[in-house]
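Structure in, sequence out. Go:
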């Protein structure tokens, strides 16, 4: 049969069940959109969610991202899904800034847990990325007695013997990492150790699905912001599996050469990736 008539092998596409916005991101974007519909302009200190395409779309509707809260003096800020630190909240009040609170209720729950633990004089260990906005705000809520650790090696210098210790996690942490670090903390001889699994259920489901998907396809496309912690964790989980893994923000980054000779590809997304982008990724894969 001539080459031109040989039927092209179709790449099998397996889309994960959990794609698109999580509950907290959907809610935050909805709150921002509702406010902009009636007020036309607002600010967010840092991007409202970690997805450049969504941030750009909201910017076109009047939501300006700022670094310095002073720029919003006398206007309104939308508090992003990652929450706000007490210091920034105080500054907003001092600058007569209106606050539209789009903090995810699960992040808010972590704040409440930490406030209570602080009252009860626990040494609080926050497992997460120190420079992530959620953890910056949470560690400020927890105060001076709190320690942020990202890996078990961060525990080396901590003396917990005979202390009351409480452990909480970044909501978007990789669960296996949290369990490993929590188990290392348990070995450090605290008088009392309380562990709060504050990882969000949506994140846990996506991580489980990423692991499963990476075991049954040749390649996985992880769709989401490059600075999104939960998306990066999904990519790491897939890389640890047997599949080739590519982390893309949109369909424009997809290269046909990635799938040459492959039989199947899985598609999964981070919690701040809208379903429209995942749809476009799948459509592009279909025409490769
Ligand atoms: S990933 Fe979970 S904690 Fe984070 S915004 Fe979404 S629902 Fe909230």
């Amino acid at each position: 049969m001539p080459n031109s008539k040989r039927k092209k092998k179709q790449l099998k596409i397996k889309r994960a069940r959990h794609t698109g916005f999580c509950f907290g991101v959907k809610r935050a974007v909805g709150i921002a959109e509702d406010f902009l519909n009636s007020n036309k302009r607002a600010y967010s200190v840092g991007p409202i969610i970690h997805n450049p395409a969504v941030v750009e779309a909201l910017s076109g509707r009047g939501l300006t991202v700022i670094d310095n809260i002073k720029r919003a003096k006398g206007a309104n800020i939308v508090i992003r899904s990652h929450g706000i630190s007490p210091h920034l909240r105080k500054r907003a009040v001092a600058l007569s800034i209106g606050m539209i609170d789009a903090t995810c209720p699960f992040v808010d729950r972590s704040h409440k847990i930490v406030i209570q633990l602080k009252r009860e004089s626990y040494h609080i260990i926050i497992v997460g990325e120190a420079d992530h906005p959620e953890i910056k705000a949470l560690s400020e809520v927890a105060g001076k007695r709190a320690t942020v650790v990202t890996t078990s090696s961060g525990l080396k210098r901590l003396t917990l013997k005979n202390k009351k210790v409480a452990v909480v996690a970044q909501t978007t942490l990789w669960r296996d990492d949290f369990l490993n670090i929590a188990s290392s903390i348990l070995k450090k001889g605290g008088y009392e150790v309380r562990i709060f699994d504050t990882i969000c259920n949506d994140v846990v489901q996506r991580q489980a699905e990423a692991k499963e998907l990476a075991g049954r396809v040749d390649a996985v496309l992880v769709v989401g912001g490059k600075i999104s912690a939960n998306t990066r964790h999904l990519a790491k989980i897939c890389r640890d599996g047997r599949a080739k893994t590519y982390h893309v923000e949109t369909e424009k980054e997809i290269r046909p050469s990635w799938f040459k000779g492959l039989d199947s590809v899985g598609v999964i997304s981070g919690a701040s990736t809208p379903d429209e982008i995942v749809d476009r990724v799948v459509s592009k894969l279909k025409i490769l």
